[in-house]
Design a protein that fits this description.
Elements (H helix, E strand, L loop, with lengths): L23 E6 L6 H12 L3 H14 L1 E7 L1 H17 L5 E6 L1
Antiparallel strand pairs: 1-2, 1-3
This protein binds L-tyrosinamide.
L-tyrosinamide binds next to strand 1, helix 1 and helix 2.
Pfam families: ClpS
Keywords: Hydrolase, Protease
Function: Involved in the modulation of the specificity of the ClpAP-mediated ATP-dependent protein degradation.
């Protein structure tokens, strides 16, 4: 029935995969000069943390050198980093904030 034998009825089965967008960790880095209260304020203001939460994370960064302060889509992570870096620069603090793919 297929004439010359060419297959005219190939079914390619693929798993129905829904691809989620990659997530990015926003990291806060320790330094020797930025005041602790400033970092706490940044975490409250830009990451919606309570004062107690913010203080705890700030101390983790202070002691360990770095901590994840949130996980977001690429666009939101980029915005958070830019907001923190701009706010720190405007207050002349060397605070560093970066992002990396999860
Ligand atoms: N190490 C700073 C100090 O002793 C405090 C600090 C904490 C700075 C967290 C940056 O991301 C940071 N004043």
């Amino acid at each position: 029935p297929d004439g010359d034998g060419a297959d005219t009825n190939v079914v390619i089965e693929t798993k129905p995969r829904t691809k989620r967008p990659p997530l990015y960790k926003v990291l806060m880095l320790n330094d020797d000069y930025t005041p602790m209260e400033f970092v706490v304020h940044v975490l409250e203001r830009f990451f919606g943390m309570s004062h107690a939460q913010a203080f705890e994370i700030m101390l983790t960064v202070h002691k360990k050198g770095v901590a994840v302060v949130g996980v977001f889509s690429h666009e939101i992570a980029e915005t958070k980093v830019a907001q923190v870096m701009d706010f720190a620069r405007r207050h002349q603090h060397p605070l560093q904030c970066t992002m990396e793919k999860e």
